[in-house]
Predict the 3D structure of the following.
Amino acid sequence: MSISRRSARRSVRILGVASASAAVVLGLSSTASACTISEFKAEAKCDGNKGVIVVTDNDASGTPATVTVFRTNSGGVEKQVGEQPVKGSAEGTAVTFQENWQPNATYRVHVTASPYVDQDITPALSTPSTACKGGSSTPTPPASTTPKPSPSESTPAPSASPTPSDSASGSAPASAAPSNAPSPAAGSSNLAETGANSNTPLIAGVAGALVVVGGGAVWFGMRRRGARGNG
């Protein structure tokens, strides 16, 4: 059975169309599975009391990539926070940068996945207006900077001031201390009492009586002696 030229040409044409269609399909599928910047997402989160920046790679093709994070300071000056490799997946692969970010800060996240991606994630990452709880970026001021005096400082203790009984008892030993020297005031007081003693008239009367008795005895003796001389 012979094949005509017309049939051969038709077969070649059909094979050409099929090959072109297959090439287009392969090209579209290759483009669809290639890594793109839209498959990367950056977020500012809290890990406990510290801030972190998390970048997630949702590239199902698993193309190796490198993520670099920059902090944009005032005046447009940038400082690199860190750089990490990542290999994406359909479920998403995340890399975490330890960055205790401040509220309302701006970060630029750059992704390199040769030969498909070499650009920043847009828009730039802006952190929340509230810092992580307990973070050092927003310290809580003390309730009062002036210390309050304690009761012991503001009010003296009752035992701090001596009572009259304490002062009297404290001075009593000094006045009661013995002294070898006689007190002039005490001596003068004794003399005054002696001079005003009520026994003085009695002593004078006894002395007068003795004088009278003595005189009588002398007189009686002289008389007796004279009577003997006469006899």
Remarks:
- The helical segments are 5-33, 151-154, 164-176, 184-195, 200-230.
